[in-house]
Amino acid sequence: MDMPMPLNCRHPRPASPVHGLPRHRSGRLLSRLLSLALSFGLGLGLSIGLSLGLSVGLMGTAQAQGSFPARPIRVIVPYAPGGGTDIMARTVAGKLSEILGQPVLIDNKPGANTALGAELVAKAPADGYTLMFTNDATFVLNPALWKTLSYNMARDFTPVATVAYMNLSLTVSASLPVNNFAELVAWTKGKSGTISYGSYGVGSQAHLMGEMYRKLSGTDIVHVPYKGSAPALTDVISGQIVFTFPAIATIQGFMKAGKVKVLAISGDKRSPLLPDVPTFAEVGYKDMDIGAWYAFFAPAGTPKEVVARLNAAVASLLNNAEFVDRQLTPQGMLPMNLSVDQVSALMRSESDRMGRIVRQSGAKVE
What we know:
- By secondary structure, the protein is of the alpha/beta class.
- It is built from twelve helices and eleven strands.
């Protein structure tokens, strides 16, 4: 039990926490020192924590980009399965899968003159796992021809890599009484107002080439759009229309069978597959020089390291002579091995050129 304190005794005064200072002053000083210590400790800890967190975050990002790709890549093709763009996409995708060590999967999203697929890619996460593979109708012709589009190439996309350039040809029926381009011009002028040409869709390369022919030759010739180059070519052979503009690969069988004649091709030099056929520039119709070139695009904001990795993979493929000789050359295609900056520059120059050609030809889309 506690012993009672004598009545004449006082409570002893506690000693000052800090020697030589009154209790009330030493208490305040102790509080201030404690506050400073805590502030310093917390600040230092927070600083260290933020630094460590930032370092870990940056390391994680670097590792993620360095190990790209870590999962399958989805490639949206804004055309239906079985067409030229789809076939080229699948050919390239199979080889890229081997180079990148991950599946590269094709997802066809046709519609709205390729705008449907383009819009899907524009809205995808900018991480390199969703790409678009298409031809210049999407990224050069559409912006030049259509007043309004659901996508903007400069704002919504990052160029990744070009793959190939494809010559397009002016092809007529073997039964047409002409044997060269000059004879075609003379013949069509004599039939002005009663003849037509075929394209593989409104706003396609063939549409613009036909309108340039109409303008440059002074021939009144009607545009007939088809759902692809094959049906247009069928009607050329049967005499329903005068000419169309298929790829060389499309017409090789018909040429061997003696059903068609090729009077000119696009490109800055003759095709090794058709060495006797002049270019449009050679026949004096340089502004009809409209081919098709294929490229990959990623959503805007995709990390540069990821874009560089993808570009290097495509470059590796195009540097493979066996791939070029077996997959591109037989189809009349020329490899386009360009850096990202070169792709951007080509897009700018071609956009300016196509804009001028559209204005000059008077081509319109409804």
